Amino acid sequence: MKRITLLSAIVLMYGCSVETTEDFSTLNASAKAQNSEEENFIVPELICEGEESTFVFEFPEKPGKTALKVQLYGDDPSTTEEIEEWYNIFDEQIEGSGPVDFYYTFEEAGDYSIRYQIGGGGFTELMVTVENCGCEESFNYEGAGDTYTFIYTPAEDMEDAHLTFTFAQSVSVEGFSENWTWHGQTMQSNVELEACVPLTWKLTLQKKCDGSTPNNNVWTDFKVNDVSKKGDLSNIVQSCP
Predict the structure, then answer these.
(1) Intervals of CATH 2.60.40.730 along the chain
(2) Which CATH architecture has domain 39-131?
(3) Which of 25, 131, 166, 211 has the fewest CB atoms nearer than 10 Å to its CB?
(4) CA nearest 163: which of 139, 187, 198, 197?
(5) Following CA atoms 164, 166, 172, 178 in sequence, which dihedral angle do they give, to the nearest 10 degrees?
(6) Would you call 107 exposed, middle or buried from its count of C-beta atoms within 10 A (0-12, 13-18, 19+)?
(7) Sequential pLDDT tens for the chain (241 residues)
(8) Any idea which fold 138-237 has?
């Protein structure tokens, strides 16, 4: 009976040992999975060409420093040879935990292969799409009295665009560069426009009140290639005594 009891005890102890080993294994795997979930590289939903984008490293605090690296596949602009290869666009050693922001500007629209690394181990590759976000064409003015700032933002590039400001009769206008010339009651110029880059004109407008021009209008329109951009803007008026 004693021998049977001893054997039973050994079997019981072995069973407990196996169960304990499985519990530790499960806990270890769970901890690794949780740690992996805490390490992440967040890519913006929208990346526009020519605009700075913010990428974010997320990772828990570890002993020492954590190596963070981002590489882009293509021709490294810092080298003279044209070779398609992976090159660093971010490479830092960070103490503490995330988040850590990484800023980068893609100058042209298209699909790009990048890869990142958080701490040791290999890289994780992904594809990012850079879009030509463009902008909406706009025209506006602001000011009061006799000083106004006109702002025009084109939505596309234009070479030798013909711009025209229209003023009322008997108005003194100051502030245009020498590239602008009078044509009747308009100031005109040919200008090269760059998409999404605003042009501004700070002008001094003064109505000449001589009793013969009762109309109080000062500025009435702005055109690009003979197309009015005034929209719902009101005329600029100045009262005569």
Answers:
(1) 39-131
(2) Sandwich (2.60)
(3) 211
(4) 187
(5) 10
(6) exposed
(7) 444 444 444 434 444 444 444 443 344 434 444 444 588 999 999 999 888 999 999 999 888 999 999 999 998 988 888 888 999 999 999 999 889 999 999 999 999 999 999 997 899 999 999 998 888 899 999 999 999 999 999 998 999 999 999 999 889 999 999 999 999 999 999 999 998 899 999 999 998 887 655 678 999 999 999 999 999 999 999 987 7
(8) Immunoglobulin-like (2.60.40)
> What tokens does 25 get?
């294994």
The CA R_g of the chain, rounded to the nearest whole Å, is 34
Model confidence, pTM: 0.52
143: left (phi over 0), alpha (psi -120 to 50) or beta: left
User: CB within 8 A of 73, min separation 6: which ones?
Assistant: 84, 85, 86, 112, 113, 114, 115
List the structure tokens of 12. Answer: 């019981």
Tokens of 86: 């992976």
Task: Tell the residue number behind the tokens 């005109």, with chain if given.
Answer: 188
